[in-house]
Amino acid sequence: MDKLQEIIRKLRSPDGCLWDRKQTIRDVSRYLIEEAYEVVEAIEEKTPAAVKEELGDLLFQILFLACICEEQGAFNLDDITQEIAEKMIRRHPHVFGNRTVGSVEEIKANWREIKETLENKKPGFFDGIPLSLPALERAQRITARAAEVGFDWSGAPEVMEKVDEEIIELRTALIAKDQAKIAEETGDLLFTLVNLSRFTNVNAEAALRGTVGKFTRRFGRIEEKLAASGKTPAEATLAEMDALWDEIKKEEAP
Is the pLDDT of residue 109 over 90? Predict the structure, then answer.
């Protein structure tokens, strides 16, 4: 950690790297999000070497941000680690104190109580769920939070009925060619599907990333097969690409 901090300070120094010296907190925040996504991608691919590399890239961005804040006289890495250590100890009295809990629900209740009393944080009901999260992930967290107080469907079959209802409403909007209504009903359908994912213990964000990954992988195979016959996707017909798609699906079938 010390060596990495020294490297960052060198990069930010007058005789360091012009590009690194120009970076601001806002600039680095974008890279931070990108690196976090790459960590998740590496975890989903289940390749430890890639996870290690991406965690290193993410750690670099965190330390880079800490260095900028240190330069500005705001705080340094020691301040960050000290504050988070104190917070974790404070929020886990069942581990570091004498409080007894019997379930995960009790732990969550204690966590909220500690935030509101000891830390004097009076959150709104959905506070703590970042606006910057991908929409599917945020929707799933919000609906899970609402479910904690009973604002929820009774089960997956009931959610499926709502999915069917939303599809009908979307179809009606499409027939009417009402663009604003189409957008609204599309959002409602996606939101309901996220709820279905929650009831079936599926992470909606991860599921969609998986499907996007599958699509890009299969389309890459289409490109390869077309290239073997001297064509590009732009030169192929839809029928040709559909046939290759079906062929690739069969090759992937267990």
Answer: no
Find the length of the chain: 254
Rounded Cα gap, residues 140 and 195, in angstroms? 7
Structure letter (DSSP) for residue 98: S
Distance (Å) of CA 45 to CA 51, 52, 173, 209 = 9, 12, 39, 12
The beta strands (E) that lie in the chain are given as none
To 5 degrees, how large is the angle CA 146–CA 150–CA 154?
105
- Whole-angstrom distance, CA of residue 204 vs CA of residue 138: 10
Lowest mean pLDDT among 29-33, 119-123, 183-187: 119-123
pTM reported for the whole predicted model: 0.66
**C-alpha span between 141 and 240 (Å, rounded):** 42
Domains observed in the chain: 2-87 (1.10.287.1080), 91-117 (no CATH), 135-202 (1.10.287.1080), 206-252 (no CATH)
Give me the chain's average pLDDT, please: 93
Q: What is the pLDDT of residue 227?
A: 96
Q: How far apart are CA 208 and CA 220, in angstroms?
A: 18
Distance CA 254, CA 249 (A): 10
Q: Give the pLDDT band of residue 111 (cuts 50, 70, 90).
A: confident
